[in-house]
Every structure is written in C-alpha cells, then in structure tokens.
Amino acid sequence: MSFQSKPLTKSEAMSPRFTPELAIQGLDPEQDRRTFMSTAAKSLLGVSVAGALTNSGMNSIAQAAAATSVAGKAKSVIYLYMTGAMSHLDTFDPKPGSESQGETQPTKTRVPGIQITDKMPKLAYLMNGIALVRSLTTETGAHEQGRYLMRTSYKPLNSIRHPALGTWANHILKKANPNLPGNVLIGSAAGHPAAGFLPASIAPVPISNPAAGLQNSKSPGYVDDDIFRKRMSLARQFDAKFKTSVDSHLVQAYDETYREAVRLMGSSELNVFDIKQEKQEIRDFYGDNRFGQGCLLARRLVQKGVRFVEVEYGGWDNHNDIYSRLPGLATNVDNAVGALLKDLASKGMLDEVLVVLATEFGRTPKINENAGRDHHPGVFSGLMCGAGIRGGQAYGKSDDKGHSPEEDAVYPEDFNATIAAAMGLPLEEEFFAPNGRPFRICNSGTPIEELLT
Amino acid sequence: MKARITSDLSMHSKPFWGRLALCTLLVLMSTGLAEAQSKGKKMKSQKFKGYGLPDPVKTAPKVKMRVVPVDAERAQECKDVAAKIDEMVEAKLKTQGIEPNAMANDYTFVRRVYLDTVGTIPTLIETNAYATTKASNKREVAVDKLLSSPGYVSHMYNYWANILRVKDRPNNNIIGFPFRDYLKETLRKNMPYDKWVTEMLTAEGKIWDNPAVGYTLRDNGMPLVHVDNTVRVFLGTQIGCAQCHDHPFDKWTQQEFYQLAAFTHGTRTRDGGGTPAFENGNPITRVRKELTEIDDSKRLAGSQNTLLQANLFRVSFNDKRKLKLPHDYQYDDAKPNQLVKPNFLWGEAPAGAKELSPREQYAAWLTDSKNPRFAKTVANRLWKKVMGVGLIEPVDDITDNTVSQNDELMDFLTKEMIRLKFNQKEFIRTLMYTRTYQRASSDYDPSEAEFYHYPGPRLRRMSAEQAWDSILTIAVYNPISYDLPTTEQLADTVNMDLSQVSYAEVEKKAKEYDESVGPRARTKIMNKSAYQRQVLARASELQSPLPADHFIRQFGQCDRETIEGDSTDPTVPQVLTMFNGLFTHMMLEKGSVINDSVMKSANVRDAMNVMFKSILNRPPSSRDREIAMREMTRGDRVMGYGNVIWALINTREFLFIQ
Prior knowledge:
By secondary structure, chain A is of the alpha/beta class. Chain A is built from 15 helices and 16 strands. Chain A has helices at residues 2-5, 10-14, 20-24, 33-45, 49-54, 56-67, 121-125, 143-152, 165-173, 225-245, 249-265, 280-286, 290-303, 322-346, 412-423, and strands at residues 76-82, 106-108, 115-117, 130-136, 183-186, 205-207, 308-313, 353-359, 362-363, 375-376, 380-386, 393-395, 397-398, 405-407, 431-432, 438-439. In chain A, the strands form five sheets. Chain A has an eight-stranded mixed β-sheet with strand order 6-5-7-1-8-11-4-12, with helices on both faces. Chain A has a two-stranded antiparallel ribbon with strand order 2-3. The two termini of chain A are 22 Å apart. Chain B is mainly α. At the A-B interface, strand 6, helix 10, helix 11 and strand 10 of A face helix 2, helix 27, helix 31, helix 32 and helix 33 of B.
C-alpha cells in the first residue's frame, strides 16, 4: 500500500496524527491500519481497498506526478465553492448559547474543543484530518465582488481580469496529463474569472451537469477523423480573411479554445468525465444530488492528474427562512465531502490532493425579520484537508457572536496563498499581464504556516 | 437544374446508409430522397436519419406583433443630432491622433444592424434585399424598419432581462411570468423609460393584476439589497457596501444608505396578519385544517400550496413601518437601533412630489430628469449597447471622481435622453444614424486600461441570445411558434380571495393551473416546438433561467442571479457544441430554411452563395469560392455541402459582430 512503503517525513514521524490519510481514516496511530481499511473503509465505500489502491489510475497519477517537478505536496486541488455565501454560524463556526446561534445545534468532533453543526456528523468524525479556518474576513458584502476576490485574490477592476487560482496552477505547473484539460469547473462559467489575462487554453472547462459529463465530445458516427479534419481545414480557410483583418484578444482566445477542444476530442481518456462508470453504490455514497455527483466527478478527474477542479454548490444566499433550506445543504455537503475524503484516503490520494471548501463571505449573526441571515463579510469560515495541510485544527477564531475575527484574521489572499504554497507555486514572483502591469499569484497574501505541514 | 442536384444526391443513396446519413438533412429533403430512404431502410441498420423538425416552426407566422414604430417625422432631426454626435466623436479622435475607420460595407452593416436591433443575423432574403437596394438612405431605412419590428421587442427584452435578473419563479411561490410579459409589453409600446421605471418602483397589488410589481418581488425578502440593486441599475451608483459599514471606496456612509432605504421600508411584498387576506385568520392554516377535516390523511398538494402562497404575494405600502439603524451600528453620528428619517443621496424630490407617499417620492426623485445620474446612466448604457463600450465604464459604478471618455459627448447624450423624454427607441435610432456606428468596427481590449475612442463600433462576440437566435434564423421559419397563456388567463385561473377561500376552490384552481396556465402547461405548449427536447424558439420565449447545460447558458447567458452576469468568453463545451451539437443536424433537416434555400439553387455555385449569405451574410470571396467549389464538386457532393455548412458555422467570423 502506497503510504506504508513511503518513508515518513520528520513531522509526520513526530506527530502521526497529522498524516492526512491516517487522520482521515479515523485511525489512531496504534491501530492496525490493515484491519481498519479492510473493514471500515470497505463498509463505508463498498469497495475493496486493496483493489482501489492497486488500480491503474493510481499508477498513472504517480507516473504523471513523477514526470513533473513540483515542489509542492499538493499535485491537484479540489476546490469546493459554496456560491451565495455560506453561513459560518450554521456550519463550521456554531455559537452555542449565544444570541447568534439560531436553530443550529452543535456537535462535538473527534478533535477536542472543535464543534461544528450537527448536520455534518461525517466531517465531525473526520476532523482529525481537517483544518478549519474560522477567521476569514473581507470588506465586500456583494456576491460578485466577493467571489471574484476569493477566486483571484484581487478586487475586481474594470481594466483587467485576474486569473483564478486554478488557472495560475496550470500556468505554472502545466498539465500532469496531456490527454485531459488541467482545469475543470463543475458549475457555471458565467461570472467566473476563468483564465483572466492568462491564455484561454488553460481556462477551466465548465461541466454544467456532472451526471451528463462533457457533452458533445464525440463526432456523430458518420463523421470520421478524415472528414473532421477536412471540415476544420475548411473552416480555417474560410476564416483566414476575418482573422487577419482583426487583431483581437477575444478572437485569439477563441482560436486557442478551438484548438483545445480538438485536442480533447482526440483524447483517449474522455471517459473520465462519465461518472456512470462508477458503481451505483459509490454514486449513492457521494449523495444523489448535483454537488455529490460533482465531487465524485472531481475525484475521477484528479485521479487522472487534472490539476485543479472546482465544484460549485449554490443555494447559500439564505436571506429568508434559513432553516428551511440550509440544513439540507449542510447534509449534502457532509455526505459529499465526507465521501470524497474517505474515497481519496482509501485510494492513497490524500497525500497528493488538497481539498478546499470556500465561499464569498459569511452571514449576519442576527437573524433578520424574514427568519434569514443577511450578508456578512466581517468573518466567515473555510476548510482545507489533504496534501500539505495539517489537519485536526481550527485556525483563527471569531468573537463570541461570530461577528468579527478575534484572533488571526485571514484575508482571502492569505487563504489562497496557503493553497498555493501547498501546491508549491511561486508566491513572490511577479508575472506581467499583457498590459505590462505586474501581478502576483495571490496578490500580497501570505501562507498560513500553522496550516501547512 | 434542380433535377441535376437531385439526381446527384440520389446517387449517394446507394452505397451505404452511414454515408447517406452524413448529409442526411440536405439529402432527405430532396425529392429523390424518398427513394433513397426506402433503399436505405433495406440496409441492416438505420443508424441515423433525420429527426424531423417540429411542424410549428416550419412555416412563417401569419400574425405578427404590432410594435409601435419609430417616429417617421423625426428622421431629419435624428440625422442632425447624429451629425452633432459624430462631430464630437471625431474631434476627440483628432486629439488622439486616430483616424476614424472607413464606413462598413453593406454586408457588414446589414449583419450588424440586424444583430443590434432584432438580435439575430438577417436571413438570406433580407441580406440580398439590403445588398441590392440602391437608395442613398438605405441604412436609415433599415434602422427604422428594424426598430419597428417584433424582433426589437425580443432583443431588448433579452437586454433588460439580463440587467433585471428576470426569473420565471423569483422563489417557489412567486409566479413571475406576468412580469416577463409586462417587460415585453412596455417595449412593444415603447413606453418612456422614466415612466416605466416609475411604474416598477411604485406598483402595488398582485403580480397578475399589476405585473410591474414583479420588479419588487424579484428581491422579495431583501429590502435593503433591493435598494442597492435599484440604485445600481438606474442610477449607475454602487452603495451596497454601505449597507453594512461606510463605503470603503466611495463616499457613502451607512447612515446615508439607511436614510435612502427608509423611503421604501414600508413596502410589504407578502400579506400577513392585519391584511384583508387574514381577516378570517391565516388562510393557509385554515385551508389545511379544512382539508384534514375532510380527510385526516390528506395534505395540500404541490400546486395547491403554490397557489395559496402565490396569492399572498401582494405588494403594498404602509407608511407606518419605520426603519431602524442596525443593532451593531458603529458610528458616532447616531445610535444603534435609532429610527432613520428618509433622506435622498443627493438633491431633493421634484416639486409636486412632496405630498406623495415616501415610496412615490423615492421613485419621483430617482427618475427625475434633474437627477444627475438617472438620464446619464441610461444614456451611457444605451450608448454602450450600440457602440460596444460605455463612455463611462463600468456603467454601474459612477462616483464623483468618475471620468468619462468624452465629457462633452456624455453631457450631450444625457441632455438628448431628456429632450427625447426618455424615448429609448428614438435614442437608439439616433445613435444608429451616426457615421460612428456605421463605420467598420475596431477591436478594443479593456485590459489596455485606455479609453476606447470610437473610430467605429467595437468588434464583439455575439451575445448568447444572439448566437442562438441566429442559428434559429438559419434553420427555422417561425422562431416564435407558440402562444403562452396570457397574464389575463393566469389571473382568471389563479386569483382567489384568501379571506374566503375554501379547499374546494383551491383544489379546482390548482387543477386548472396545472392544466392550462402553470409551468407544466407552458412546458407542454412549448414542447410542440421542440426538436429532440430542445424548444426551437427565440431566447426571449424560453424559460428563465435556462438550465446550465442549455446552449444559451453555455454561450454565457446569465443565471439571472447577478446583474449583467452574462459572458462572451470562450469555453471548450461551447466549441464542442458547435462541432457536434444537435444544432449542426438541426439546420440541415428537411424543411429547414437553409436546406430549402440550398435545394432551390440552380447549381452548385448558387448553392455556395446561399450558404455564405445565409451564415456569414456576405458573398464568398474569390478564394472562398475556389475552396468551397473544390469541396463541393470533387468527390461526394452532398457530403461536400454538409462540410461547407459545418465549416461556415465553425468560423470565428460567424460568432463575431464586425
């Protein structure tokens, strides 16, 4: 099994609790790993762990990883984005006994002193491997601006579009698997900063419905390769005059995207987008909803070496009647993320894959007259788990009401810098946009040392 | 000559079905094809045959919407104003040392003006008609005709729906359809913009009685966010940050935000205790109880609940409700929880408005021609719509320090908007009369952080709706082939007096709702025009928001959650759809517009011209001709036709508006 044969680093050896795989599997270091994996993981996942660990997917990701020289521990990131601003108070930072509590009941986790909502028992159980960040803070309470900041580390400007973190990762680390896109967004592309000023060819490929996968990726049966090539050649020739008469960034971006699409159509690994190839019990385990299936697709993609997969999950903008909607969302997140972490762990992939959960801001401690919570950029929560991250902790602290950070305020750019550091991206380096202006991957963000292994 | 093609086509029926399928569509329609098909059927597999276009889209509509036309008397005046605008643009260009572009040629212009007014490329016939007209004022004539046609309503609906985040169901219990119809109706009537905005800001009642309330209902339950959105959309000003604290980048304080919000705080979107609906107690509880008394095991069904709830959504205004500062108000100028007195962000209510209710005062102030940002914002928005870049960018973040590209012009356009009494159509018409608009386009990359100086309009990618509607233009004769239930029909079916309503009435109405006017009934009507489950109708007639994997969403239509959340960025799935999507088959089906046109062609050369003019709205260049002719005459002709059409759709030229 992969992690057994791997030598432990010094810190791992000193505190085995922080080995993400061990922690996630809920193992005490003393406990016999083999026993746990053949019973607990099997019953949880319905698969034979030995099979999962020896499948060819693992070999190919290991080979792919070996082929690139990545300094960071995280070869891939699964970035879960809670669109609409997830209430911190009703998920990862409950305030039992305070006015802010609302109807949410806390539950203990396996890390002493850390409580989260009782709608997330699986994540509570896995808390040994998870790092919560409870002191995120930003200035903007507007969705679009908040999302943009969270994804790019920059405030939106009219004159330039900054790349999202996944685009940076692909720009620096390049693809690990030449047959697949390096950057995938399971959700909607509209409003996403995407490639920013970097080449459109590394913009995330949006998959709007994970159950349907990548649609239209095959030519109809009657168009063989020769005919397709001929058609492309015709289009290129008809287009020549237009393309030489305009000098347009957007037209060039379309050219790049056409080339990328052609490459993808020729890929031998397109079936990675088809989650129907998973057993029904695995699909059920992730949850029969868009987010659960999205997480499963994300796992399939990183298994094949895709660098960055974002999974969007909307519905968190609970201005009204928050307790009719939010508990269901929290349960879906618990099932999906719980399954994802277990699945990655059982496949030995948590050493190389970092899972992040983020949102644009938090929600007001006060419940409004419509039984909802409004926008609250003052403080909010995020989560990290896996490669490069020290689990079993809640970093930062909000005040008693959950209104402002009390300790260790974390700005979106610091949060992102921590992800980037886990991936080994050069945070200090300046990159020049086409307009000649210099930008850094995470603006002036600093990685949070306490979160990193 | 037609016979020649037919016989050529039937040759290809022989070899094998797959090969035939390749060009199915072209092939199937020709008369020789019946034979081809029957031969094909003898083959072992029928891997692919045309799916068949739905009947309703195959014939042109007989009755067309009557749209209030441009003012024929104003043509000269428009020209004069347009000339003044050109002077200002050209003076600015001169200071920058930039030469204006040459005038766009007729083909470029006709494609652009159709897309910019009616939201689609012109048909083959329209392209030819325009190109062969000799009149010296043909551009103005075309602008006038298009702005007076039904396509204008559809296109402008898309434009405003993107800004107003129009949804069929703002929440599960609000029926949003009447607002969509209302929006189209105001555009059809060319209602003055200031009157329209006032109507939306002051409307009261249920949505089927007064559909303008849909504007307020869109942000139901979020009164402060609604104020932020309103000021952003109609005054181009972002005060949202000040909802929680003093604005970090602009001058607005939290106190000022609350003072403005205080005008509309008495707005109620849903009936509750104390309203007539509750005269005999909570009507929903009462009906539920009645039902359990009839049958203990029964609960209200989905649409029964929806209808009861929908009847609760009634916009009303109660002056007695006062706004308080938040409990955590942190500044020295007031105390937490203190009552807030209404006050405007700037200026005051117009004379004559002071006696009105606070909500009406707010609307009067906001839409006043003297409000310095109201006319300016819409003038700048529409300038951007026509030219591709705003004089002020972004159009909805104006501050005291905002610099426009051309102050003199911005000022002039603002005054012109007021002089035209906020006549949207005449304003657009004037801009389209300018040389500036009629020149060749230029690319503009905003990341260069420089102003665009308007040597011509900006080169743009089609909007998602324009791309979809253009593909429909190539394929179907009738892109609005169904009538959905009207607001009046909806009102008759769903309206009830909640204070008196009985379970029996709810049951009956819910049944009617499902059968005749509700979402299920609408879907049934729309599906008669569906091709492989895709409804072939203009974007403005489809559901809102569309599912994320719909062609229109793929090409960047907003999810209707954020203001102008649309995008024109490329994505891989877009390209895959252009390569392999259903639409490449659809446009070649028997009875499609382009298929019919190609088949009517006298010879291969004509067919080629038809393809270029139908898709790119221009004749082929000599080089194009050489390439296309080679493709269509060498080897399998039918296959060649299919390949050329596919290739033309897959050019960047198709997707861009020059």
